[in-house]
Design brief:
Keywords: Oxidoreductase
CATH class: Alpha Beta
Pfam families: ETF
Strand order of the largest sheet: 11-10-9-12-8-1-6-7-13
Organism: Psychracetigena formicireducens
Protein name: Electron transfer flavoprotein small subunit
Structural class: alpha/beta
Oligomer: single chain
CATH superfamily: HUPs
GO molecular function: electron transfer activity; oxidoreductase activity
Largest sheet: 9 strands, mixed
Number of strands: 13
């Protein structure tokens, strides 16, 4: 079984700073890491690999420094690490990113399952997985919290739908699934794998390697139909709060009073 995992390198959002003058995220202000949701995708892939004697290929698109993220992925159980990096890829929105990743996967080889996390913590769009599946013309499922079964021809998954309901979905392979954090618990890499990850070769691909599958106009800033004009960081507003403990009369009285003050009632 051949499993492809899509990962993204993101800054530590608890430490990253925002350049309020330029309206952008200062990614150099914090250490980079694998997107936390993608760790669950990687663990799901490694679990499938261990069950079915498979192979896991991890792909990311980003600057050359993202090689560190791929080495971390190898330490956690990946077999092959691929970095899509080129000046033409910079400034890509989700669609241009998806087209570039899909171009490499088309060039790659036969694959059975593509797995990604449900979203990234920096962009929070949850679009790349679905877009990649659409470009590759394969079925996909989002918010997967369990892989029920998988065979040579199909995969059955449980989806966490709206309002707490569940869906059981069966799809023909190859297919893409986007997983939630509920699907597993991440295992820490062993010291042996960490040491080995320092010596592995990370495969690097640029536009020239994919030119038969994608044009320059479809990549990076040129190929992005959406543009981020500015990032605005909202100012924190401190509001007074009141705690009601077993005081239902007081609670409802104050709520009604507030609604009257706002002229809602």
């Amino acid at each position: 079984m051949k499993v492809v995992v899509l990962v993204k390198e993101v800054p530590d959002m608890g430490k990253v700073r925002f350049d309020t003058e330029k309206g952008v995220v200062d990614r150099s202000s914090a250490d980079a890491q694998i997107n936390p949701f993608d760790l669950n995708a990687l663990q799901a892939a490694v679990d499938l690999k261990n069950l079915y004697n498979g192979e896991v290929t991890v792909i990311t698109m980003g600057p050359l420094r993202a090689e560190r993220t791929l080495r971390d992925a190898y330490a956690r159980g990946a077999d092959n690490c691929v970095l899509l990096s080129d000046k033409h890829f910079s400034g890509a929105d989700t669609f241009a990113t998806s087209r570039t990743i899909a171009a490499y996967i088309s060039k790659l080889y036969d694959y059975d399952v593509i797995i990604c996390g449900e979203k990234s913590i920096d962009g929070d769009t949850a679009q790349v997985g679905g877009e990649v599946a659409d470009i590759l013309n394969i079925p996909h499922a989002y918010y997967v919290e369990k892989i029920n079964s998988i065979s040579d021809k199909e995969i059955v998954v449980t989806i966490n739908s709206l309002c707490g309901s569940k869906q059981l979905r069966k799809m023909k392979l190859p297919a893409l699934i986007s997983v939630t954090k509920n699907i597993n618990r991440n295992e820490l890499p062993t010291v042996k794998r960490k040491l080995k990850s320092l010596k592995i070769q990370v495969e690097k691909f640029g536009l020239s390697n994919l030119i038969d599958y994608i044009s320059e106009e479809d990549t990076g800033f040129k190929g992005s139909p959406t543009k981020v004009i500015k990032v605005v960081v909202p100012k924190e507003k401190i509001k007074e709060c009141k705690v009601y403990k077993d005081d239902f009369r007081g609670f409802f009285s104050d709520v009604l009073g507030a609604l009257k003050d706002k002229k809602v009632l």
